[in-house]
Inverse folding.
Protein backbone atom coordinates (compact mmCIF):
# COMPACT_ATOMS: atom_id res chain seq x y z
CA UNK A 1 0.00 0.00 0.00
CA UNK A 2 1.35 3.39 -0.96
CA UNK A 3 1.71 6.31 1.44
CA UNK A 4 -1.51 8.24 1.93
CA UNK A 5 -1.20 11.84 0.78
CA UNK A 6 -4.19 13.88 1.96
CA UNK A 7 -5.39 16.73 -0.22
CA UNK A 8 -5.03 20.17 1.29
CA UNK A 9 -7.79 20.85 3.83
CA UNK A 10 -9.07 17.26 3.94
CA UNK A 11 -8.80 17.09 7.73
CA UNK A 12 -11.60 19.69 7.91
CA UNK A 13 -14.09 17.09 6.66
CA UNK A 14 -14.01 15.25 9.99
CA UNK A 15 -13.07 18.07 12.31
CA UNK A 16 -15.71 18.25 15.06
CA UNK A 17 -17.86 21.36 15.29
CA UNK A 18 -16.19 22.63 18.46
CA UNK A 19 -15.05 26.17 19.11
CA UNK A 20 -11.29 26.05 19.38
CA UNK A 21 -11.08 28.39 22.37
CA UNK A 22 -13.44 26.14 24.36
CA UNK A 23 -11.47 22.92 23.86
CA UNK A 24 -9.82 21.69 27.03
CA UNK A 25 -6.75 19.44 27.44
CA UNK A 26 -7.22 15.78 26.53
CA UNK A 27 -10.46 16.34 24.68
CA UNK A 28 -11.36 15.19 21.22
CA UNK A 29 -9.00 17.36 19.19
CA UNK A 30 -5.99 15.92 20.95
CA UNK A 31 -7.22 12.32 20.88
CA UNK A 32 -9.15 12.13 17.61
CA UNK A 33 -6.22 10.71 15.71
CA UNK A 34 -6.42 13.24 12.89
CA UNK A 35 -2.83 12.45 11.99
CA UNK A 36 -3.47 8.72 11.57
CA UNK A 37 -3.98 7.03 8.21
CA UNK A 38 -7.56 7.99 7.28
CA UNK A 39 -8.04 5.17 4.78
CA UNK A 40 -9.75 2.77 7.21
CA UNK A 41 -12.16 5.50 8.24
CA UNK A 42 -12.81 6.45 4.62
CA UNK A 43 -13.56 2.81 3.83
CA UNK A 44 -16.02 2.57 6.73
CA UNK A 45 -17.69 5.80 5.69
CA UNK A 46 -17.99 4.70 2.06
CA UNK A 47 -19.42 1.36 3.23
CA UNK A 48 -21.93 3.29 5.40
CA UNK A 49 -20.84 1.63 8.63
CA UNK A 50 -23.38 2.12 11.46
CA UNK A 51 -22.98 5.34 13.39
CA UNK A 52 -22.83 5.14 17.16
CA UNK A 53 -25.04 7.32 19.31
CA UNK A 54 -23.82 8.78 22.59
CA UNK A 55 -25.83 11.50 24.26
CA UNK A 56 -26.36 13.10 27.63
CA UNK A 57 -29.95 12.32 28.57
CA UNK A 58 -30.22 14.06 31.90
CA UNK A 59 -28.86 15.10 35.27
CA UNK A 60 -30.13 14.35 38.75
CA UNK A 61 -30.08 17.25 41.19
CA UNK A 62 -31.35 15.80 44.47
CA UNK A 63 -31.40 12.48 46.31
CA UNK A 64 -34.98 11.60 45.34
CA UNK A 65 -34.32 12.28 41.67
CA UNK A 66 -31.12 10.18 41.77
CA UNK A 67 -32.94 7.27 43.45
CA UNK A 68 -35.77 7.43 40.89
CA UNK A 69 -33.32 7.45 38.01
CA UNK A 70 -31.38 4.43 39.24
CA UNK A 71 -34.68 2.65 39.89
CA UNK A 72 -35.70 3.40 36.31
CA UNK A 73 -32.56 2.18 34.56
CA UNK A 74 -32.40 -0.94 36.78
CA UNK A 75 -36.12 -1.59 36.25
CA UNK A 76 -36.63 -1.37 40.02
CA UNK A 77 -33.71 -3.66 40.69
CA UNK A 78 -34.61 -6.35 38.14
CA UNK A 79 -31.60 -5.47 35.95
CA UNK A 80 -28.22 -5.49 37.72
CA UNK A 81 -26.19 -2.30 37.60
CA UNK A 82 -22.50 -2.86 36.92
CA UNK A 83 -19.83 -0.56 38.27
CA UNK A 84 -16.04 -0.35 37.95
CA UNK A 85 -14.14 -3.64 38.12
CA UNK A 86 -17.34 -5.58 37.44
CA UNK A 87 -18.99 -4.82 40.80
CA UNK A 88 -22.72 -5.63 40.52
CA UNK A 89 -25.63 -3.96 42.32
CA UNK A 90 -28.64 -6.24 42.14
CA UNK A 91 -32.07 -5.94 43.69
CA UNK A 92 -33.93 -2.83 44.68
CA UNK A 93 -32.31 -2.51 48.11
CA UNK A 94 -28.75 -2.52 46.73
CA UNK A 95 -29.69 -0.01 44.04
CA UNK A 96 -31.25 2.31 46.61
CA UNK A 97 -28.25 1.93 48.92
CA UNK A 98 -26.05 2.97 46.00
CA UNK A 99 -28.24 6.03 45.38
CA UNK A 100 -28.02 6.90 49.07
CA UNK A 101 -24.23 6.59 49.07
CA UNK A 102 -23.92 8.89 46.05
CA UNK A 103 -26.36 11.32 47.65
CA UNK A 104 -24.41 11.44 50.93
CA UNK A 105 -21.18 12.01 49.01
CA UNK A 106 -22.75 14.88 47.09
CA UNK A 107 -24.20 16.52 50.19
CA UNK A 108 -20.82 16.23 51.95
CA UNK A 109 -19.20 18.26 49.18
CA UNK A 110 -18.84 21.69 50.79
CA UNK A 111 -18.05 23.26 47.42
CA UNK A 112 -21.25 22.01 45.81
CA UNK A 113 -23.78 24.67 44.89
CA UNK A 114 -27.46 24.10 45.42
CA UNK A 115 -28.96 22.39 42.40
CA UNK A 116 -25.62 21.17 41.03
CA UNK A 117 -25.97 17.72 39.47
CA UNK A 118 -25.45 14.67 41.63
CA UNK A 119 -25.13 12.46 38.57
CA UNK A 120 -25.08 12.65 34.79
CA UNK A 121 -26.83 10.16 32.54
CA UNK A 122 -25.48 8.94 29.20
CA UNK A 123 -27.07 6.61 26.68
CA UNK A 124 -24.86 4.65 24.28
CA UNK A 125 -26.66 2.87 21.47
CA UNK A 126 -26.30 1.17 18.11
CA UNK A 127 -28.77 0.47 15.30
CA UNK A 128 -31.13 -2.48 15.33
CA UNK A 129 -29.47 -5.77 14.53
CA UNK A 130 -26.31 -5.12 16.53
CA UNK A 131 -25.47 -7.86 19.02
CA UNK A 132 -26.64 -6.52 22.42
CA UNK A 133 -23.88 -8.41 24.24
CA UNK A 134 -21.24 -6.68 22.16
CA UNK A 135 -22.85 -3.29 22.85
CA UNK A 136 -22.70 -4.04 26.60
CA UNK A 137 -19.08 -5.19 26.43
CA UNK A 138 -18.07 -2.13 24.40
CA UNK A 139 -19.87 0.14 26.86
CA UNK A 140 -18.01 -1.56 29.74
CA UNK A 141 -14.66 -0.87 28.06
CA UNK A 142 -15.70 2.68 27.19
CA UNK A 143 -16.76 3.48 30.76
CA UNK A 144 -13.54 2.05 32.19
CA UNK A 145 -11.43 4.07 29.73
CA UNK A 146 -13.28 7.34 30.31
CA UNK A 147 -14.15 7.24 34.03
CA UNK A 148 -12.43 4.45 36.00
CA UNK A 149 -10.29 5.88 38.78
CA UNK A 150 -11.85 9.32 38.34
CA UNK A 151 -15.61 8.94 38.85
CA UNK A 152 -17.93 6.29 40.26
CA UNK A 153 -20.36 4.99 37.66
CA UNK A 154 -22.86 2.22 36.96
CA UNK A 155 -24.38 0.97 33.72
CA UNK A 156 -26.89 -1.55 32.43
CA UNK A 157 -28.05 -2.84 29.07
CA UNK A 158 -31.60 -2.31 27.81
CA UNK A 159 -33.04 -4.39 24.96
CA UNK A 160 -36.66 -3.21 25.18
CA UNK A 161 -36.35 -1.28 21.90
CA UNK A 162 -35.06 -2.25 18.47
CA UNK A 163 -31.84 -0.38 19.18
CA UNK A 164 -29.75 -2.07 21.90
CA UNK A 165 -28.60 0.63 24.28
CA UNK A 166 -26.75 1.08 27.54
CA UNK A 167 -27.70 3.52 30.29
CA UNK A 168 -24.61 4.86 32.02
CA UNK A 169 -24.85 6.99 35.17
CA UNK A 170 -21.77 8.86 36.35
CA UNK A 171 -21.36 10.34 39.81
CA UNK A 172 -20.81 14.01 39.05
CA UNK A 173 -18.22 14.61 41.75
CA UNK A 174 -14.92 12.99 40.90
CA UNK A 175 -12.56 11.30 43.31
CA UNK A 176 -10.31 14.35 43.15
CA UNK A 177 -13.18 16.76 43.77
CA UNK A 178 -13.52 17.84 40.17
CA UNK A 179 -17.00 17.83 38.73
CA UNK A 180 -18.07 16.10 35.53
CA UNK A 181 -19.31 18.73 33.09
CA UNK A 182 -19.27 17.35 29.51
CA UNK A 183 -18.95 19.76 26.60
CA UNK A 184 -19.26 19.23 22.85
CA UNK A 185 -15.64 18.18 22.56
CA UNK A 186 -16.09 15.57 25.28
CA UNK A 187 -19.18 14.14 23.57
CA UNK A 188 -17.26 13.86 20.31
CA UNK A 189 -14.50 12.04 22.16
CA UNK A 190 -17.09 9.75 23.77
CA UNK A 191 -18.57 8.86 20.38
CA UNK A 192 -15.20 8.04 18.86
CA UNK A 193 -14.09 6.05 21.89
CA UNK A 194 -17.30 4.00 21.93
CA UNK A 195 -17.00 3.35 18.18
CA UNK A 196 -13.42 2.16 18.67
CA UNK A 197 -14.50 -0.15 21.50
CA UNK A 198 -17.09 -1.69 19.16
CA UNK A 199 -14.53 -2.13 16.37
CA UNK A 200 -12.17 -3.80 18.84
CA UNK A 201 -14.96 -6.36 19.29
CA UNK A 202 -15.55 -6.97 15.61
CA UNK A 203 -18.42 -4.55 14.96
CA UNK A 204 -17.84 -2.00 12.22
CA UNK A 205 -18.92 1.30 13.74
CA UNK A 206 -18.17 4.94 13.07
CA UNK A 207 -18.58 8.32 14.73
CA UNK A 208 -18.46 11.08 12.15
CA UNK A 209 -19.93 14.59 12.25
CA UNK A 210 -23.29 14.98 10.50
CA UNK A 211 -21.81 17.17 7.79
CA UNK A 212 -19.29 14.45 6.89
CA UNK A 213 -22.27 12.27 5.88
CA UNK A 214 -24.12 15.01 4.03
CA UNK A 215 -26.69 15.48 6.78
CA UNK A 216 -27.74 19.10 7.25
CA UNK A 217 -30.90 18.74 9.35
CA UNK A 218 -30.29 18.75 13.09
CA UNK A 219 -32.06 16.07 15.13
CA UNK A 220 -34.87 17.14 17.45
CA UNK A 221 -33.44 17.87 20.87
CA UNK A 222 -34.38 15.44 23.62
CA UNK A 223 -36.47 17.85 25.76
CA UNK A 224 -38.40 19.06 22.71
CA UNK A 225 -38.98 15.49 21.53
CA UNK A 226 -40.35 14.50 24.92
CA UNK A 227 -42.65 17.53 24.99
CA UNK A 228 -43.93 16.60 21.53
CA UNK A 229 -44.57 13.05 22.72
CA UNK A 230 -46.51 14.36 25.72
CA UNK A 231 -48.54 16.64 23.43
CA UNK A 232 -49.34 13.73 21.10
CA UNK A 233 -50.61 11.82 24.14
CA UNK A 234 -52.81 14.77 25.12
CA UNK A 235 -50.71 15.62 28.16
CA UNK A 236 -49.26 19.01 27.31
CA UNK A 237 -49.00 21.89 24.85
CA UNK A 238 -46.95 22.05 21.68
CA UNK A 239 -43.46 23.34 22.55
CA UNK A 240 -42.83 26.96 21.63
CA UNK A 241 -39.89 26.04 19.43
CA UNK A 242 -42.10 23.60 17.48
CA UNK A 243 -44.80 26.25 17.01
CA UNK A 244 -42.21 28.71 15.73
CA UNK A 245 -40.86 26.09 13.29
CA UNK A 246 -44.39 25.41 12.00
CA UNK A 247 -44.94 29.14 11.40
CA UNK A 248 -41.69 29.27 9.43
CA UNK A 249 -42.77 26.23 7.41
CA UNK A 250 -46.20 27.74 6.72
CA UNK A 251 -44.69 31.00 5.48
CA UNK A 252 -42.49 29.03 3.13
CA UNK A 253 -45.33 26.76 1.96
CA UNK A 254 -48.14 29.27 1.45
CA UNK A 255 -46.68 32.79 1.45
CA UNK A 256 -43.79 32.33 -0.97
CA UNK A 257 -41.09 32.92 1.66
CA UNK A 258 -38.29 31.12 -0.21
CA UNK A 259 -35.41 33.33 0.91
CA UNK A 260 -32.62 31.13 2.33
CA UNK A 261 -31.78 31.81 5.95
CA UNK A 262 -28.17 32.78 6.74
CA UNK A 263 -27.52 29.48 8.56
CA UNK A 264 -28.93 27.56 5.59
CA UNK A 265 -26.60 29.39 3.22
CA UNK A 266 -23.63 28.70 5.50
CA UNK A 267 -24.58 25.02 5.73
CA UNK A 268 -24.87 24.74 1.94
CA UNK A 269 -21.40 26.23 1.57
CA UNK A 270 -19.98 23.76 4.09
CA UNK A 271 -21.61 20.88 2.24
CA UNK A 272 -20.17 22.04 -1.06
CA UNK A 273 -16.72 22.24 0.52
CA UNK A 274 -17.04 18.78 2.13
CA UNK A 275 -18.09 17.15 -1.12
CA UNK A 276 -15.33 18.89 -3.08
CA UNK A 277 -12.75 17.62 -0.58
CA UNK A 278 -14.09 14.07 -0.76
CA UNK A 279 -13.97 14.11 -4.56
CA UNK A 280 -10.47 15.59 -4.60
CA UNK A 281 -9.30 12.86 -2.23
CA UNK A 282 -11.08 10.23 -4.34
CA UNK A 283 -9.25 11.42 -7.46
CA UNK A 284 -5.92 11.29 -5.60
CA UNK A 285 -6.64 7.71 -4.55
CA UNK A 286 -7.78 6.74 -8.04
CA UNK A 287 -4.43 7.94 -9.39
CA UNK A 288 -2.49 5.73 -6.96
CA UNK A 289 -0.42 2.82 -8.33
CA UNK A 290 -1.92 0.66 -5.58
CA UNK A 291 -5.06 -1.22 -6.63
CA UNK A 292 -6.50 -1.08 -3.09
CA UNK A 293 -6.21 2.70 -3.09
CA UNK A 294 -7.88 2.91 -6.49
CA UNK A 295 -10.81 0.80 -5.29
CA UNK A 296 -11.14 3.01 -2.23
CA UNK A 297 -11.13 6.10 -4.47
CA UNK A 298 -13.98 4.61 -6.52
CA UNK A 299 -15.91 3.82 -3.34
CA UNK A 300 -15.48 7.37 -2.00
CA UNK A 301 -16.63 8.87 -5.31
CA UNK A 302 -19.72 6.62 -5.22
CA UNK A 303 -20.37 7.66 -1.62
CA UNK A 304 -20.39 11.32 -2.65
CA UNK A 305 -22.82 10.60 -5.49
CA UNK A 306 -25.18 8.93 -3.00
CA UNK A 307 -24.99 11.65 -0.34
CA UNK A 308 -28.41 13.13 0.46
CA UNK A 309 -29.43 16.47 -0.90
CA UNK A 310 -29.03 19.23 1.69
CA UNK A 311 -32.29 19.80 3.52
CA UNK A 312 -33.54 21.92 6.40
CA UNK A 313 -36.39 21.67 8.89
CA UNK A 314 -38.16 24.72 7.44
CA UNK A 315 -38.22 23.24 3.93
CA UNK A 316 -39.23 19.78 5.18
CA UNK A 317 -42.12 21.26 7.14
CA UNK A 318 -43.19 23.28 4.10
CA UNK A 319 -43.33 20.12 1.98
CA UNK A 320 -45.31 18.34 4.67
CA UNK A 321 -47.80 21.20 5.01
CA UNK A 322 -48.31 21.48 1.24
CA UNK A 323 -48.84 17.71 0.96
CA UNK A 324 -51.32 17.73 3.86
CA UNK A 325 -53.19 20.66 2.35
CA UNK A 326 -53.40 18.92 -1.04
CA UNK A 327 -54.59 15.69 0.57
CA UNK A 328 -57.31 17.58 2.45
CA UNK A 329 -58.53 19.19 -0.76
CA UNK A 330 -58.65 15.91 -2.61
CA UNK A 331 -60.54 14.14 0.18
CA UNK A 332 -63.08 16.95 0.70
CA UNK A 333 -66.61 16.35 -0.72
CA UNK A 334 -67.38 18.22 -3.97
CA UNK A 335 -68.79 21.70 -3.50
CA UNK A 336 -72.36 22.26 -4.74
CA UNK A 337 -72.70 24.40 -7.87
CA UNK A 338 -73.27 28.08 -7.37
CA UNK A 339 -76.85 29.43 -7.46
CA UNK A 340 -80.19 27.90 -6.41
CA UNK A 341 -82.44 25.33 -7.97
CA UNK A 342 -84.73 27.96 -9.58
CA UNK A 343 -81.83 29.44 -11.51
CA UNK A 344 -80.74 25.98 -12.69
CA UNK A 345 -84.30 25.29 -13.98
CA UNK A 346 -84.14 28.36 -16.15
Amino acid sequence: MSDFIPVQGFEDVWRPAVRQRQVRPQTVLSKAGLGADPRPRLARLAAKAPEVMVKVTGRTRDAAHLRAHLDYISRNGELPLEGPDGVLFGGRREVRDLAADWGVEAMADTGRRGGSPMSHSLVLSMPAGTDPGVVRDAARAFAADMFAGRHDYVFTLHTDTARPHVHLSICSRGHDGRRFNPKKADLELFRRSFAQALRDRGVEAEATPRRARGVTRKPVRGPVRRMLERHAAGQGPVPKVARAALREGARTAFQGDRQPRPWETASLRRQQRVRELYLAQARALQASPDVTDRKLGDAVAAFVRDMPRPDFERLALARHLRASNQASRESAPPRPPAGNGRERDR
DSSP finds twelve helices and six strands in the chain. The longest strand covers residues 53-60. Residues 20-34 have pLDDT under 50 and may be disordered.
